[in-house]
Amino acid sequence: FTRWPFMTTHTWAENPRGLWKLQISMAPGKNNAMDTGSFFEWTLILHGTKDAPYDKQVVDGNKHTKLYKVKRVHEAMRKA
Predict the structure, then answer these.
(1) How far apart are CA 68 and CA 66, in angstroms?
(2) What number of helices (H) and strands (E) belong to the chain?
(3) Smallest Cα–Cα separation from 7: which of 36, 41, 47, 37?
(4) pLDDT tens track of the chain, all 80 residues?
(5) Is the Cβ–Cβ distance between 33 and 17 less than 8 Å?
(6) Alpha carbon distance 25, 8 (integer Å)
(7) Cα Rg, the chain, nearest whole Å
(8) Are 13 and 73 in contact (CB under 8 A)?
(9) Phi, psi at residue 77, to the nearest 5°?
């Protein structure tokens, strides 16, 4: 991949402060042979908001939405 953006929402509710480390691993390919590759550069871009996105929006009780799960994690972090 050349300049391919890998994106995720799985880190929502993650505190962006601190040391970030990029770990790369390759699974064995056909016949357990290891493929090789070259890694030249990477960039980490964090997007966020000062205020939690659910503070000004109604988050319904649908426990399967990402925003609902993030709200629960933030509430638990505040209580700890």
Answers:
(1) 5
(2) 1, 0
(3) 47
(4) 677 777 776 677 677 778 888 888 777 777 777 777 787 888 887 777 777 766 656 666 677 777 777 778 888 888 87
(5) no
(6) 18
(7) 18
(8) yes
(9) -65, -35
- pLDDT tens per residue across span 19-32: 888 888 777 777 77
Tell me the two tokens of residue 59: 């988050």
Residues found in the chain: 80
Q: What pTM, to 2 d.p., does this model score?
A: 0.43
User: Whole-angstrom Cα distance, residue 26 to residue 12?
Assistant: 25
DSSP string computed for 6-50: P--STTTT----S-----------GGGPPP--------------S
